[in-house]
Amino acid sequence: xxxxxxxxxxxxxxxxxxxxxxxxxxxxxxxxxxxxxxxxxxxxxxxxxxxxxxxxxxxxxxxxxxxxxxxxxxxxxxxxxxxxxxxxxxxxxxxxxxxxxxxxxxxxxxxxxxxxxxxxxxxxxxxxxxxxxxxxxxxxxxxxxxxxxxxxxxxxxxxxxxxxxxxxxxxxxxxxxxxxxxxxxxxxxxxxxxxxxxxxxxxxxxxxxxxxxxxxxxxxxxxxxxxxxxxxxxxxxxxxxxxxxxxxxxxxxxxxxxxxxxxxxxxxxxxxxxxxxxxxxxxxxxxxxxxxxxxxxxxxxxxxxxxxxxxxxxxxxxxxxxxxxxxxxxxxxxxxxxxxxxxxxxxxxxxxxxxxxxxxxxxxxxxxxxxxxxxxxxxxxxxxxxxxxxxxxxxxxxxxxxxxxxxxxxxxxxxxxxxxxxxxxxxxxxxxxxxxxxxxxxxxxxxxxxx
Length: 451
Description:
By secondary structure, the protein is of the alpha/beta class. It has three domains: about 10-60, no CATH class; about 65-75 and about 340-450, Aspartate Aminotransferase, domain 1 (Alpha-Beta Complex), CATH 3.90.1150.10; about 80-340, Aspartate Aminotransferase, domain 2 (3-Layer(aba) Sandwich). Helix content is about 35%, strand content about 15%. It has 13 helices and 17 strands. A seven-stranded mixed sheet has the order 2-10-9-8-7-3-4, with helices on both faces. A four-stranded antiparallel sheet has the order 13-14-17-16, covered by helices on one side. Helix 9 links the parallel strand 8 and strand 9 (about 255-260). Helix 4 runs parallel beside helix 11. The longest helix is centred in the C-terminal third of the chain and has 37 residues, at about 330-365. It is globular, with a radius of gyration of 25 Å. The mean pLDDT is about 90.
């Protein structure tokens, strides 16, 4: 951002223009007890002095942590070509592509994104993206209720807790019966699921893989929910999806997920990218935007926004959803990443991540006091039972410049010693050795403290 200092005269003229005597008058609507009373103590610096000060602060930053954390957001390698392409001014714009005649490039890349998501999930249609995977899941439950005219939503406890919290927010005030099926040994308790589903159930939502990295018996859930006439919603990891049976093959009706692993950096937690796919018969219920390919009266191929009657700018309170935009730049990034990687490249990323996860698990489980929290196949994320509270382990490992995973106890109080570890293709042998040695040191100190 350019350095644009305002002089006292500049500020006086601006205040006069808007009819305000002093800057403080702009904050009259803020309660007095909420206002900051002390000076901000910001030094007055020239542009050159400011840049020098920022560079000095940047040099004081510590070396970044080696990341073994996941939980929906992952540290994948992003080819340099991705940023180069999406940084072009044709893509890096806030322009909304309503006018197809001037937005063909934007519309085409969005259409390609939709096509990639359909191939990845095995579904018929996908929209132009959503804010994030959690809100996409919330929208999917609303679609299921609208289609089935039912008001009972069933979630598995093994679905990412943040996704479940978002769904609860989406459904609040709608008179919905929201039921969470408890887990058993890290997986959805299918017996409890069967007892919960009935003719009033709009949908059942499961994750593949689940929050603990385990693979669920989605075929069983699909059979149970469809037997009572409800819809199956799946939330999936797009990278792991390159190795697994597609949601389409499971018989899923709606598929959502977090698209951050598809070429989008961690960036301190955002922005993120939600993808949303469905069966063709549900296309008129899909929220947000859909880009279609068509031909004009002269037979020339082109791209347009289609089925827009779902959006609030057309139907207002009768709209399918109140989402009226999409994560265009993030979706473009994902489209570029998937195009560059291709089917083979995406599968290689998934395989490397899975192989490194298996190797890490073998090494960690050799250590005293560390063992699998749950038994069962996993892809690139797994749960470890650690010898002390997982959050304590995390803080100790951060001192060693390693972020070892996430503490399940934050959302599952009964699992305070559960550490969920994730691997990606970026993790090297050196990274893994440093990780395992750090855990070994902590386990030895635990043993000594008990002697």
